[in-house]
Amino acid sequence: MATEKKLTRTDLIKHWLLGYSSETCYNYERLQALGTTSAMIPIVNRLYDTDAERAQALKKYMVFFNTEPSFVGTVIHGVAASMEEQAANGKQVTAEDINAVRTGLMGPIAGIGDTVSQGIIYPILAGICCSLALAGNFAGPILFEVLYKVIMLGLGFTMYMTGYKQGKSAILNILQAGTLGTITEIFSIVGLMVVGNMAASRVNIATGVAFQVGEVAFNLQSILDSLLPGMLPLAATLFVWWLLSKKMQATYIILIIFIVGIICSLTGLLTTAA
Asked: CB–CB of 62/37 below 8 Å?
């Protein structure tokens, strides 16, 4: 009977710490994929015996991945480590299962993590420490750096270990019960809602076209807003999605956006929303 392969606490700590470099070689095609794959090296080195097995295990992580990396997003790395451990021990956990969970979780976790870090912890600490600094207390900026890092590392490690422990005990039951598809679908819906909101709030496009019929002046943007607010940002997003579906490289898409944006700006067809 083969000996069960087991991750040590040292392996988990290395994986967790290397996860903070997940934005190493950050790029617009795979975002955090390369950094996340690099962080998995201590895990696959422990679980697999040959270089070929390790290379195959790492390849599954070289897919598009992006989430909040420091405070809450570490829970996904913990779950991935747990599932990889189960797969290495012959359990029915495939590469598709691992990436389905990672992909399904990354959007919602990013929303939660960004809110915690940028919307709660950072403003509160900055407000307190800036007040100290403005009062002439040199401890203000030092206190900010120390407290921010302590909270980040403490919360990040707690979330990582929670993901590992819960993933280890529950993931097989989820797979056997056939609920993985439902969970993934739920998270995918939430993730799509986040992406849809980003398309409406982050893509800043409007048209400057105006015309007059008789004595009545019309503004095309006002007409579009009355029909469907955010129509132009949606159209631009769908256009980029269509180009991606045609297997066009992201670099070429960015170039097209630059060219079209400059031409439309100079001619007055497009402008930034007010």
From this structure: yes
Quick one: DSSP state of residue 117?
A: I
C-alpha to C-alpha distance for 1 and 16, rounded to whole angstroms: 31
Q: How far apart are CA 181 and CA 175, in angstroms?
A: 9
- What is the Cα gyration radius of the chain? 24
The tokens for 6 are: 């087991």
Phi-psi label, residue 195: left if phi above 0, alpha if psi -120 to 50, beta otherwise:
alpha
Inform me whether the pLDDT recorded for 17 exceeds 70: yes
pLDDT of 173 higher than 70: no
Most confident of 105-109, 128-132, 148-152, 262-266: 148-152
Predicted TM-score (pTM) of this structure = 0.63
Distance from C-alpha of 112 to C-alpha of 199, rounded to nearest angstrom: 18
**Torsion sign (Cα): 64, 68, 73, 74:** positive
